Amino acid sequence: MDKNNETKEIILQTALEMIKQEGFEKITIRSIAQRSNTNVSLVNYYFGSKDKLISEVIQILLSGFQESFEVLDDFTLPPEQRLKRFLLHYVQGIEQYPELLSRVITMGANLFASQQEYGKFMRMIGFDKIKSLLKELTNEQDQDILMMMVMQVFGAVFMPALMRQTLEAGSGIEMKPVERQIDLLLERYFSENKM
Q1: How many CA atoms lie within 13 A of 69 on its CB side?
Q2: What pTM was computed for the model?
Q3: Residues 70-96: pLDDT tens digits?
Q4: 164 alpha carbon, distance to own chain's centre
Q5: Engineering a disulfide at 55: which of 23, 38, 43, 112 sits with its beta carbon 3.0 to 4.6 angstroms away?
């Protein structure tokens, strides 16, 4: 890696950690520059603005989620196994930065470019891949029902991962391992004897 890319990467990783710890609102270009042992001019040179830097940080996070969809194309695996691997990979991304992702989700209409790109990916590719897999598992043909099933699977698996700390600390709920949660979901809703 050349010096320019190394410096840019240091700034990105510093911003990622600061956003994780402090949130989008509290960080400044100056504080990122100070903590990354660079200067304001370099941060502005590489990113142009705080919003563009944050957008690139979010892009790093969201690109990991896009990679999760690749397992859905591995037709050497049975459909239940593809769904399980997809969900496990996706949850691993969530578990790295649950607070940061919660903030990204709660931003509502205040989207960064990287969030819009991910939304476009989901609309054009992601949702169709998952619906296709669910269709394969259930023989459901209705696209509206398949989309509702996607939302139910996402809610059943991703919300507990995002809320783990709150549920465990605030509610005293002992969260079972994610793999066990996914196995239960597959057993209850997608096993052959349920269809």
Answers
A1: 16
A2: 0.77
A3: 999 999 999 999 999 999 998 988 888
A4: 15
A5: 112
